[in-house]
Amino acid sequence: MSPAAGKEGAWRRRRRRAAAPGAMAESNADWMGSLPAALRTCPLSNLAIPGSHDSFSYWVDEKSPVGPDQATAIKRLAKISLVKKIMKKWSVTQNLTFKEQLEGGIRYFDLRVSSKPGEIGHEIYFIHGLFGIKVWDGLMEINTFLDQHPKEVVFLDFNHFYAMDDGHHFFLINRIRSAFGSKLCSVECVEYVTLQYMWEKKHQVLIFYHYPLWREFPFLWPGNKMPAPWANTTNVHKLIQFLETTLEERSRYGTFHVSQAILTPRVKTIARHLVRGLKNTLVHRNLPMILNWVKAQKPGVMGVNIITSDFVELVDFAATVIALNDLLLEEDESTSKS
């Protein structure tokens, strides 16, 4: 057996242990740095990478005003304190902090941000119905992890902006630059961006910015390089059909790709299950079927790339996605034998 084959076998054994029920989340903290040599030169757009949906929503502020992402009618209703408590049950899509998600193997973060109307200055907060923590605090938490794990790479996808003019955007972009500095990867041909490429340049962060100002900063990747089709359904069978269809339509080259393995509540869903919340109404019941779909996938040029989920800790989601990369090794082995 060659040394490379021995290392690949050891990686597979580690992956099986990490995916075992009850495995410690920390076992995924260095999964990218532990990948076999054959996968380090594979474009990141062809690897299977776990991500979280509304990644920052583990904490929302019931005391702050309702966010500008909400309809006027909701803002009026939210003057009643009980309404905010109900909103919280449906706004929170994650239980783990950024640090905990990173330690568990999550590498893609879905970020929605806003200023606080009426607040002096340009401070920016995460938002999902209610305001979350300051973006700066989240960026610093991520940067601390990256300092401790220099071979790990993260994708930060800033895809929704609320109550922000260009002044707010310049403030946020400068915060991003201050937080990560030389870790930021400038826009490049997607197929060039491998782990080996990132390590050689000592880059660890790719920022996707869905606003025209991306053109003015070399470290901001345009939003169209990170398409994330959204099923917008409460029906798990429709979700899976949508995920299959959008994978078939995925661009072969030039972009990353997000498969959003999430269910979205309708107004009537919330009305029927007011106090149960998102996790107890939609997520718990359907996660096993969603996870089975994930297990049946294969990464690669026309396969899955980034897969996102709500409440990533409820099942062995991250480990299951990471383990899909074994299939690339098997493909590589069969090619070398033929």
Kindly list the characteristics that best describe this protein:
single chain, 338 residues, alpha/beta, 9-stranded mixed sheet, 9 strands, globular, PLipase_C_PInositol-sp_X_dom, lipid degradation, PLC-like_Pdiesterase_TIM-brl, transducer
- Derived from helix and strand composition plus strand pairing, the structural class reads alpha/beta
What's the pLDDT, averaged over the residues? 87
Calculate the terminal CA-CA distance, rounded to whole Å.
Answer: 18 Å
Order of helices and strands: HHEHHHEEEHEHHEEHEHHEHH
Brief synopsis:
By secondary structure, this protein is an alpha/beta fold.
Report on this model:
By secondary structure, this protein is of the alpha/beta class. 41% of the residues lie in helices and 14% in strands. Strands 1, 2, 3, 4, 5, 6, 7, 8 and 9 form a nine-stranded mixed beta sheet that branches. A hairpin with an 8-residue loop joins strand 2 and strand 3. It is globular and about 55 Å long. The model has no long low-confidence stretch (mean pLDDT 87).
Secondary structure blueprint with pairings:
Elements: H1 3-19, H2 37-40, E1 49-52, H3 72-77, H4 81-91, H5 98-103, E2 108-115, E3 124-128, E4 130-134, H6 135-148, E5 154-162, H7 166-180, H8 195-201, E6 205-209, E7 220-222, H9 236-248, E8 258-260, H10 267-272, H11 277-295, E9 306-309, H12 317-323, H13 326-337
Parallel strand pairs: 1-2, 1-9, 2-5, 5-6, 6-7, 8-9
Antiparallel strand pairs: 2-3, 3-4
Helix pairs in contact: 1-12, 6-7
